[in-house]
Specification:
By secondary structure, the protein is mainly α. The protein contains eleven helices and no strands.
Length: about 220
């Protein structure tokens, strides 16, 4: 059997190859032989590393979710409960949560397939749907519904979901298929400048629709 170093290298190669192919073709449309060929590895090593194709799907989800696990707005809010008491403090909470979410969804130039993989996996794969629903979507809906209710005083869940969708749908659309955005850009590459401007505009929408006015930049000045 492979040694530890070789084993970790081949395992990582399978994860990256599978993620890219799953994003392009879907999980069901991708064979383990195609993954092995792209990874440049023996197909038998998939069973050795992951047990089966489902185990590989879980491994790719784990790889993608690693950054999401560092996204912990709940911890930030618990550490700063005083922020709820003022309008400026509530702005800071919203800014923190939106900025963190946008960083998670920001297209990764090294692994541009990540968000597309999550979307495809959630739509068509039973394992992926369950995990993404339980680990990302449901906690996110609860988190942002509570935020909306706390700031507006409204318990209308539908309004809370519409608010969250208006804020987070734009970066998700961009992250899922940045090529579409790039192709509509005169320079053929939207890039970080476009994404940062998109984030700033969505932040203004988020704050205005919560009755919190305009955000402040890092120097404390109105944007």
């Amino acid at each position: 059997m492979p040694g530890y170093d070789t084993s970790e290298v081949s395992k990582h190669a399978f994860i990256l190859a599978a993620g890219e192919l799953f994003a392009a073709q879907g999980v069901s449309g991708t064979s383990v032989r195609a993954i092995a060929a792209k990874a440049g590895m023996n197909v038998a090593l998939i069973n050795y590393h992951f047990g089966n194709k489902d185990g590989l799907v879980n491994a790719v989800i784990d790889f993608v979710m690693e950054n999401y696990r560092h996204y912990s707005p709940d911890a930030f809010i618990k550490e700063h409960p005083e922020l709820w008491e003022t309008t400026q403090g509530q702005r800071e909470i919203v800014l923190y949560m939106v900025n963190q979410a946008y960083e998670f969804m920001r297209p990764d130039p090294e692994h541009p397939w990540v968000t597309t993989f999550l979307m495809r996996c959630a739509e068509t794969n039973e394992i992926g749907h369950k995990r993404i629903l339980e680990e990302i979507l449901i906690p996110g809906c609860i988190r942002y519904s509570k935020l909306y209710a706390r700031i507006t005083g409204s318990t209308d869940y539908q309004k809370a979901r519409c608010w969250a969708l208006s804020v987070f749908a734009p970066p998700f659309i961009y992250a899922v298929n940045p090529r579409i955005i790039d192709d509509t850009c005169p320079r053929k590459h939207a890039g970080d400048e476009f994404y940062n401007d998109l984030k700033a505009r969505c932040i203004r929408i988020a704050l205005d629709s919560l009755g919190l006015g305009q955000p402040r930049n890092d120097s404390g000045e109105r944007q």
